[in-house]
Amino acid sequence: MIPSDPVIAIVGATGAVGEEFLSILASRRFPHRQLRLFASKRSAGTVVDFQGRKLLVEELNEDSFDGVHIALFSAGKNVSKQYGPIAVQAGCMVVDNSSCFRMDPDVPLVVPEVNGDVLASITKPCIIANPNCSTIIALMAVSPLHRAVGIERMVVATYQAASGAGAAAMRELETQAREFVAGFAYTTAIFGRQYLFNVFSHNSAIGPDGYNEEERKLLLETRKIWNDQKVRVTATCVRVPTLRAHCEAINLTFRDSLSEADARTILAKAPGIRIVDDRAANRFPEPIEASGIDDVLVGRIRADISQEPGKGLDLFVSGDQIRKGAALNAIQIAERFVPAAAGVRAGSAART
């Protein structure tokens, strides 16, 4: 269906995730014969450096996907809604980073390390949805435990970086830091408030039940990815003044008993996880350490003493929202459809 040297398109190529797509395609040496970059009319004409080549960013239109085999979308829900089906109609496999299709029952919602097996049954062009960044980071950490004993309830508190709101939010946080030093009034175009030295409720819309969209995504997406409508999830999502890499405090209630020692053993063997848990040195996952890496950091692993022995666990995790929480996860999905990509990755790993 997809050749070993596909034509790849990036939609939203000039945004924070689009730039990360380019970096990861290069670092993972994803095989391709051509790479095409698309963005809005405002960004069209930009020239991007990629592996020593100069690539021109084109304005997205309905003919953009002719001859394209894989399209990586990160340009917002409205763009995905309009152009995702057009790309599929043109014969393109779409991996979409927006929320547009995540809860569509006909669209797979995939974290490759968690439910990548669902990709094996896909034999024709379609849309595959990337989960929300907070969901990806949480499920990377807890899914190995869910497979072992089942998770009955998960309580999550997120500490979300500026990267989750895009490159403009990251720039505004940096701008506010310079304004603080200079004694200037803060620029507040993105969040409408001071971000530096502040923590506030996640900026997504709040529903009549008091939950915001980010919190609701953690519940609904977890149930879909695990194919488990019984698991109970509640979350409180906030913005913190860090540039990239989200953190999450996670409390679990298990269906069957699991000791802290066994949980550590399971997590140590899980792909894409790195344990950072040095109690003596008080060193645990930090966003500055998670930034720019593929793995999700997991620490503060301890039994929940408020529950019966073996029935609960607390974790603190950190993962790069732009990378594993967005671009890397999408590219890992795309690699499943390009056998040559898996070979390149295996060879690269053998040399490192």
Q: What do these coordinates show?
A:
The protein has 352 residues and is of the alpha/beta class. The chain folds into 2 domains: 7-130 and 326-351, NAD(P)-binding Rossmann-like Domain (Rossmann fold, 3-Layer(aba) Sandwich); 134-161 and 199-320, 2-Layer Sandwich (Dihydrodipicolinate Reductase, domain 2), CATH 3.30.360.10. It is 33% helix and 23% strand. It has 10 helices and 14 strands. A 7-stranded mixed β-sheet has the order 3-4-2-1-5-6-7, sandwiched between helices. Helix 1 (16-27) crosses helix 9 (323-335). The longest helix has 17 residues, at 133-149. The chain is globular. Mean pLDDT is 95; it is low at 346-352.
- Helix/sheet category: alpha/beta
Strand order of the largest sheet: 3-4-2-1-5-6-7
- Integer average pLDDT: 95
Taking the alpha carbons of the first and last residues, their distance comes to: 31 Å
Helix content: 25-40%
Task: Pick out its properties.
single chain; 352 residues; alpha/beta; Rossmann fold; Dihydrodipicolinate Reductase, domain 2; 2 domains; 7-stranded mixed sheet; 10 helices; 14 strands; 23% strand; disordered C terminus
